[in-house]
Write a structure and sequence with these properties.
The chain crosses the membrane at residues 179-205. The protein is built from six helices and no strands. The protein is mainly alpha-helical.
Length: 240
């Protein structure tokens, strides 16, 4: 679960940051579930090795919390997928119109255009009507950000290196495919955690039953099998 969360944060974090909707962050939930799972593993291993019922019960409770976080991550990826896509379009337009201010939006949009080899929201022509095209940073009419042209600093309309596809379709497909994978993986790992919770509870119950049996065994043995009295040995008269 922790590995899945790290991968999701690295693969999707830069794209989800551009979304204008405050949808639940599935990668963050998976990271929390993975960290909780590490704590659960330590408690479960220590409880099984020392036969300590309290540790096993605590590990079962922690695993239930981890299960809840994993299920929330999977369900958020399924339920909020459409909202995420629409928020992503809004966020892209917002980043494009505010490009040049030097904030996180600039870096996120440049990273997106470089990584997916795309330009603009729907097409590279979106930049031609943007505030950035009329700013001093633009290099004349038809100028595009360098991230639209791979390996070419002077990026102009009509250049061969200009990415012809918009970023919305590419990024939304990428995020949707990976969110579906995250949802299926999180739900599958959640099912395995249910098995872990059941096994921890059964082991704790077995330890409790064994401890109770050990405590009652000496008392029942003394009542059911009393020690027989030793018969008195008759005195043997001494011969004169």
């Amino acid at each position: 679960m922790l590995t899945l969360g790290l991968w999701a944060e690295m693969a999707l974090g830069r794209y989800l940051a551009l979304s204008a909707r405050g949808a639940p962050s599935a990668p963050s939930l998976l990271l929390a579930a993975g960290a909780t799972g590490l704590l659960w593993g330590g408690l479960a291993g220590g409880g099984a090795a020392s036969e300590h019922r309290g540790l096993l019960q605590a590990s079962a409770a922690i695993q239930l919390a981890s299960l809840g976080a994993g299920l929330a991550a999977g369900l958020s990826g399924l339920c909020y997928q459409n909202e995420l896509v629409q928020g992503f379009r809004t966020g892209l337009w917002k980043a494009l119109r505010g490009y040049g201010a030097g904030g996180r939006g600039d870096a996120g949009l440049d990273t997106l255009q470089w990584g997916l080899r795309c330009c603009g929201v729907d097409t590279y022509r979106d930049w031609l009507d943007s505030p950035w095209a009329r700013s001093p940073r633009a290099q004349g009419n038809g100028s595009l950000p360098p991230s639209c042209c791979r390996g070419q600093a002077d990026c102009q309309e009509g250049a061969r290196a200009v990415a012809s596809h918009g970023c919305f379709s590419k990024a939304s497909d990428f995020v949707a495919d990976n969110m579906a994978f995250i949802a299926v993986a999180a739900l599958g790992l959640g099912a395995l955690q249910v098995v872990g919770v059941v096994l921890a509870c059964l082991l704790a119950a077995r330890m409790a039953s064994g401890a109770q049996t050990s405590a009652e065994t000496p008392k029942s043995h003394s009542l059911e099998n009393p020690i027989p009295a030793v018969p008195a040995v008759p005195a043997v008269p001494l011969e004169p």
